[in-house]
Amino acid sequence: SLESKGNKAEVGAPLPDHVMLLQTRPWLPLSVLLNVGRDSPYYNERNKMSIFYAESWALTHMLEMSKQYGGNFLKFLSCQAGGKPSADCFSSVYDKTLKQVMASLHAYMHQAGIYVAFFPVKLPEQSLHPNVAPLSDLQRDLTLADLLATQPHRAAKAEQRLIALSKQYPQNTDVEESLGYLAWQEGKLAAARVYFGKAEKNGSQDPDMLFQYAGLLREAGASDEQIMDTLQKAVALRPGFFAAEFNLGMAAMHASKWGTALGYFTGIKSVKADRAFSLFYAMAICDYNLHGLDASRTEAMRAQKYAKTSREKSQVAGLVAFVERAEQHPAQAQPQPLPSSIRQTGRNRPPAQWFSGLQHVEGMVTYVECHGKSLRLRVKADARLMVFEIDDPKSVQVRNMKNGHFEVTCGPQKPFRVGVGYIASKKPNPVAGIVRELVF
């Protein structure tokens, strides 16, 4: 709990609902409480979750706030973080058995009062007393299904719940969106398109979903008109949505609607440096095809300022040469297509779902080492360079790639993003782990 007391914040006041439950319901043995996992009924069934959370609150409060336990709470947490069983940590840190800790907890919750902490912080009123409303049955069931969907081994159960909700609430966009994201995470792109399409048809107000749906449509070869219609809805819901605005222009260019594309591009109010070259170069192409040669040269020069690679610099030089040739020989000017290197802004992948028992990291693959039948991936993750070994390609689960596999050449790579699920290696550095899952 958190309460404002003048210029101080009070932390740890009793929570009436938890206290009432602890006074009226049987408590869980600590051996059960401390080993509740995501598959436990105490974590998933409403009639059992309440006592689990109430007793967990009481135990945490005692370990943090009481004079008997509070002084060594950080040591206890450190012991737990080291992977030791809770019973062993209570023994080594507090010299107590679980039975003794349970006796302390009962005594703590039945004493006349419990300790609270005060901090010299003045909290704004809106942070302390937000408007809180109870969840509807749909919101509750949808939230529980979404939580199940975060666990790969329970995805089938999440899908069953969501399908049942879609039948009960056939016009609800949130349910269709959740089904779409679940299908997407499992690599079922066709199903994801169907669910996202239903959500759009029913009036989805989620610009991110609409943007991602447009990307799925593009990959499936949908018409430029359908893609543009979806992206226009995303932009209408979120003005200034750069990725959607840029892709709108790209879809119009793909349909050779140069004036329409230029209108979308010029409507973009701001652009980050890493996207500036693509934007200005695309605008230069549009101007060229609209016979605005001066404007095309101007945009090409703007693009040149942000050209980093030799290929980008060569593209600018080539376009300027086309402009100069068209000025000298207007009758010979030919339509200029957009180079394949200028691509639409990619859609965000859904949060990676990982198999249990694996550690994971996400980063950019920069180099692939080939050692006979095994490979090593050099991955840059959060400024760290990590090396992961693929000892047996057949043992690696590949997700979000067609047919469940990908091809790579040995040597330096044009950096590409990947999520790596791995077993921590017992080998010395530089190998961080053995790959068992790759998520694209």
3D architecture notes:
This protein is α+β, with helices and mostly antiparallel strands and 440 residues long. It has 19 helices and nine strands. The protein has helices at 16-24, 30-33, 41-44, 46-65, 73-81, 86-94, 98-109, 125-128, 137-149, 155-168, 173-185, 189-201, 207-219, 224-237, 242-254, 258-266, 273-289, 293-306, 310-328, and strands spanning 2-5, 8-11, 117-119, 359-371, 374-381, 384-390, 397-399, 411-424, 431-439. The protein has a five-stranded mixed β-barrel. A three-stranded antiparallel β-sheet has the order 1-2-3, with no helix packed on it. Strand 1 and strand 2 form a beta hairpin.
Jot down its keywords.
about 450 residues; alpha+beta; five-stranded mixed barrel; three-stranded antiparallel β-sheet; 19 helices; elongated
Helices, strands, pairings?
Elements lengths: L1 E4 L2 E4 L4 H9 L5 H4 L7 H4 L1 H20 L7 H9 L4 H9 L3 H12 L7 E3 L5 H4 L8 H13 L5 H14 L4 H13 L3 H13 L5 H13 L4 H14 L4 H13 L3 H9 L6 H17 L3 H14 L3 H19 L30 E13 L2 E8 L2 E7 L6 E3 L11 E14 L6 E9 L1
Parallel strand pairs: 6-9, 7-9
Antiparallel strand pairs: 1-2, 2-3, 4-5, 4-8, 5-6, 8-9
Rg for CA atoms: 29 Å
User: What fraction of the residues are assigned to beta strands by DSSP?
Assistant: 5-15%
Poorly predicted runs of 5 or more residues: 348-356
Neighbour order of strands in the largest sheet: 4-5-6-9-8
Straight-line distance between termini: 41 Å
From the helix content, strand content and strand pairing, which structural class follows?
alpha+beta
